[in-house]
């Protein structure tokens, strides 16, 4: 262990490896503090502690430390495991913590720069028989402590036992499979648990690219009819984007209340079990794609007094989703919605809410005996309500809107309804004509970001930096130096001229590179090693540039990563791409352990390219995939030997945001001729319209299950361009590129 020398510590350590350094009166007895500096000393201290005692880990790095903390305290005199200085004890490498016993406190520890050798970083049991109860886990940090292989599963905090409190911790940066936190109910001693999860900061979790990216899961399907009684309140969920379920409730009797969900893609989901309540929560989507609200499945669920604003999710990710169930459903599928109560919520500036969502041959049981009343519904969308099955089993009354778009659920329309923002930062109806008996209550007080997480932990700024504009002369060395010196948010303005790169530029931050005088004025040329390498965290935007690959088989853009440590994003605007005859690489390819949140090509011209354009197929990745969404608009591709796009995923699970593909208002001439021009496997969302395809290869498309918009029409295709389209069930669908499908 390494640590900063201190006179006091040296004095103590001279006396003994484990030493009582302080003694304080505690309930009439002398409670002891054991300051320990290595793992052996910790083991000795653990054998000596009694009720009221504290073990203090000395400041510094503790590497490869698998801690077992098993002791018995009392309500008045708990046994504590603490950092000498909160935030100054770092558990790194192959480290974890197992907790067993009663009335314990763990605080001030930081797990980082490593991963657990087991499938639990913090386990509230030391073995199957020794659970943790009446334990407080407070002011700890787990950050960037993920297994190297994102497909290998673990969870950061796993709760067993009863009456445990998880408060004022920070959890952020998980990039591998498995919920960040789990409440397990596998034995009677962990049921009816009354756990309290409060005032924690759940920070960024990037998209996983597969199933198992929940931030919090309470129970599993096998124990979903078991009462958990867990309370989740006053936590801050910020950009928790792992998968479509931010909180997955798979048990009964739980309360999710007074939390803030900030720009988090996904929803709070009543996945299994009944008698749960989601109330007085605040959702700020801020227009971020795929931000969802609350999804209802099963019986006796209550959604009350919530505020949801700026959400952009559709179908399963709608602001409110009431699903269809499976008749006589097994526990791991979808039970029919029954006796749901949805009252006095505010849904403001959202894209869609849906009823009977997921209706198909299997999910044919529409909601019954349910009520939606007293809600405020405001959206500028033409069709903000999706009705996917019979909704006669839901009574709608007293819901107020300013839009005729809610006529499908009989909302009361008040055309002159206006809103004003109150001191609590939320919007409420204004004017004397509004009686205020609908929508979210005015006494909501969204918990502040600063009130969550450890006091010693400095959170990163919530807003992305604006950056500076930096002029770069027409010189390759100056260009490379500018990229290396750039700060997140900067824009590099390249002078007129050519910039020839001998090796790729590595991008790992948010950066814009912009040419002068349009794409004819500034050119970037690369040799056989490619032009840009994209690492985790990259958000590369290129504008008004001409790009040329001069030789070799390397891709122009390559997403790199032996292990997954976060997503990247690529956007090209007003960019032309050309390649010499000797260059045969793709424009964009990626390593299997990478993931793109979004790839956008807008007003891009590609002429004479001897490889593929986008190669992110996902073949052979067993359901994992390489990008959520690829968007190509207003672009021109001609004389491209390979495919325009190879993209998609295998499998049918409904936990991910994609893959989705858009191709609109674009021209394909001699693209993938005699072979495949567009190859889309397992696509959830598709917009393929108003394109011209001439002397172009086959278009292959296979749908997946989530049911996002799937539109294909208005494409002018020569007879040489054929379409093969398969549905979710693998059966061929009779459609054409011109007439298409909705």
Q: Can you summarize this structure?
A:
4% of the residues lie in helices and 43% in strands.
Q: How would you describe this protein?
A:
The protein has 742 residues and is mostly beta strands. Among the domains are: 169 residues, no CATH class; 258 residues, Pectate Lyase C-like. It is 4% helix and 43% strand. The protein contains three helices and 68 strands. It has a 27-stranded mixed β-sheet that branches. It has a 16-stranded parallel β-sheet that branches. Strands 4-7-9-13-16-19-22-25-28-31-34-37-40-41 form a 14-stranded parallel β-sheet, with no helix packed on it. Strand 42 and strand 43 form a beta hairpin. The longest helix is centred in the N-terminal third of the chain and has 10 residues. It is globular. The chain starts with 6 loop residues before the first helix and ends in a 16-residue tail after the last strand. The N terminus is likely disordered.
Considering the chains and any ligands shown, give keywords for the structure:
signal; globular; Poly(Beta-D-mannuronate) lyase; disordered N terminus; 742 residues; Pectate Lyase C-like; 27-stranded mixed β-sheet; 16-stranded parallel β-sheet; mainly beta; PL-6
Please write out the topology.
Layout: H1 7-15, E1 19-26, E2 29-36, H2 39-48, E3 54-57, E4 60-63, E5 66-72, E6 79-83, E7 89-94, E8 96-107, E9 109-115, E10 120-123, E11 125-127, E12 130-138, E13 141-143, E14 155-159, E15 165-167, E16 170-172, E17 181-183, E18 196-198, E19 201-202, E20 216-218, E21 231-233, E22 236-238, E23 245-250, E24 255-257, E25 260-262, E26 266-272, E27 277-279, E28 282-284, E29 291-296, E30 302-304, E31 307-309, E32 320-323, E33 341-343, E34 346-348, E35 353-357, E36 370-373, E37 376-378, E38 385-387, E39 394-397, E40 400-401, E41 412-413, E42 418-421, E43 427-430, E44 469-472, H3 476-485, E45 491-494, E46 497-501, E47 505-507, E48 510-514, E49 522-526, E50 532-534, E51 539-549, E52 557-559, E53 568-579, E54 588-590, E55 596-609, E56 614-616, E57 629-633, E58 636-640, E59 645-648, E60 660-664, E61 667-671, E62 676-683, E63 685-689, E64 692-694, E65 698-703, E66 710-713, E67 716-717, E68 723-726
Parallel strand pairs: 2-3, 3-6, 4-7, 5-8, 6-8, 7-9, 8-10, 8-12, 9-13, 10-14, 12-15, 13-16, 14-17, 15-18, 16-19, 17-20, 18-21, 19-22, 20-23, 21-24, 22-25, 23-26, 24-27, 25-28, 26-29, 27-30, 28-31, 29-32, 30-33, 31-34, 32-35, 33-36, 34-37, 35-38, 36-39, 37-40, 40-41, 44-45, 45-48, 46-49, ...
Antiparallel strand pairs: 1-2, 11-12, 42-43
């Amino acid at each position: 262990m390494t640590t900063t020398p201190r006179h006091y510590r040296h004095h103590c350590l001279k006396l003994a490896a484990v030493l009582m350094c302080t003694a304080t009166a505690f309930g009439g007895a002398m409670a002891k503090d054991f300051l320990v500096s290595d793992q052996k000393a910790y083991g000795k201290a653990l054998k000596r502690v009694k009720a009221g005692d504290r073990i203090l880990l000395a400041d510094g790095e503790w590497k490869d430390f698998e801690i077992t903390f098993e002791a018995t305290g009392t309500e008045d005199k708990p046994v504590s495991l603490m950092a000498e200085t909160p935030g100054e004890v770092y558990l790194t490498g192959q480290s974890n913590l197992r907790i067993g016993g009663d009335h314990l406190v763990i605080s001030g520890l930081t797990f980082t720069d490593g991963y657990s050798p087991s499938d639990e970083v913090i386990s509230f049991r030391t073995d199957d028989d020794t659970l943790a109860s009446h334990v407080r886990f407070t002011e700890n940090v787990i950050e960037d402590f993920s297994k190297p292989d994102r497909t290998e599963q673990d969870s950061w905090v796993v709760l067993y036992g009863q009456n445990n409190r998880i408060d004022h911790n920070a959890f952020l940066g998980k990039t591998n499979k498995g919920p960040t936190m789990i409440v397990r109910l596998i034995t009677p001693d962990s049921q009816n648990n009354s756990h309290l999860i409060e005032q924690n900061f759940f920070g960024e979790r990037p998209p996983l690219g597969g199933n198992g990216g929940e931030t919090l899961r309470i129970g599993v399907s096998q124990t979903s009819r078991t009462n958990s009684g867990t309370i989740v309140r006053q936590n801050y969920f910020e950009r928790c984007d792992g998968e479509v379920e931010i909180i997955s409730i798979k048990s009964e009797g739980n309360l999710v209340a007074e939390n803030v969900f900030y720009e988090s893609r996904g929803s709070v989901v009543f996945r299994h079990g009944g008698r749960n309540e989601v109330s007085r929560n605040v959702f700020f989507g801020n227009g971020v794609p795929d931000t969802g609200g609350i999804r209802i499945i099963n019986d006796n669920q209550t959604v009350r007094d919530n505020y949801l604003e700026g959400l952009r999710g559709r179908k399963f990710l709608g602001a409110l989703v009431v699903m269809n169930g499976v008749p006589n459903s097994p526990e791991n599928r979808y039970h029919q919605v029954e006796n749901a109560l949805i009252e006095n919520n505010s849904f403001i500036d959202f894209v869609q809410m849906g009823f009977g969502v997921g209706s198909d041959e299997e999910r044919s049981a529409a909601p019954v005996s349910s009520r939606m009343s007293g809600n405020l519904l405001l959206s500028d969308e033409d069709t903000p309500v999706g009705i996917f099955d019979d909704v006669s089993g839901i009574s709608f009354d007293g819901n107020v809107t300013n839009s005729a778009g809610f006529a499908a659920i009989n909302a009361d329309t008040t055309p002159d309804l206006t809103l004003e923002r109150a001191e609590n930062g939320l919007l409420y109806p204004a004017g004397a004509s509004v009686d205020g008996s609908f929508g979210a209550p005015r006494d909501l007080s969204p918990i502040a970001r600063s009130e969550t997480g450890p006091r010693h932990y400095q959170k990163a700024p919530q807003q992305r930096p604006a950056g500076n504009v930096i002029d770069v002369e027409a010189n390759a060395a100056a260009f490379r130096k500018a990229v290396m010196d750039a700060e997140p948010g900067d824009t590099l303005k390249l002078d007129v001229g050519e910039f020839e790169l001998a090796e790729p530029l590595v991008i790992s931050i948010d950066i814009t590179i912009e040419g002068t005088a349009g794409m004819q004025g500034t050119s970037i040329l690369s040799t056989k090693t490619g032009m840009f390498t994209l690492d985790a965290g990259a958000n590369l935007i290129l504008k008004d540039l001409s790009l040329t690959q001069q030789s070799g088989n390397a891709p122009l853009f390559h997403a790199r990563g032996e292990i997954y440590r976060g997503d990247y994003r690529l956007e090209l605007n007003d960019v032309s791409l050309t390649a010499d005859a000797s260059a045969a690489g793709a424009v964009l390819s990626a390593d299997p352990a990478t993931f793109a949140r979004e790839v956008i090509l807008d007003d891009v011209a590609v002429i004479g390219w001897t490889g593929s354009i986008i190669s992110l197929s996902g073949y052979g990745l067993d359901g994992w995939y390489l990008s959520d969404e690829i968007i190509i608009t207003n672009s021109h591709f001609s004389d491209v030997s390979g495919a325009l796009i190879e993209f998609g995923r295998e499998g049918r699970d409904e936990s991910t945001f994609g893959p989705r593909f858009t191709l609109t208002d674009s021209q394909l001439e001699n693209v993938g001729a005699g072979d495949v021009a567009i190859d889309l496997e397992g696509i959830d969302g598709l917009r393929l319209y108003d394109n011209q395809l001439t002397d172009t290869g086959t278009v292959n498309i296979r749908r997946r299950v989530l049911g996002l918009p799937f539109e294909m029409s208005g494409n002018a295709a020569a007879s040489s361009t054929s379409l093969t389209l398969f549905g979710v069930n693998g059966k061929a669908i009779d459609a054409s590129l011109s007439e298409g499908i909705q």
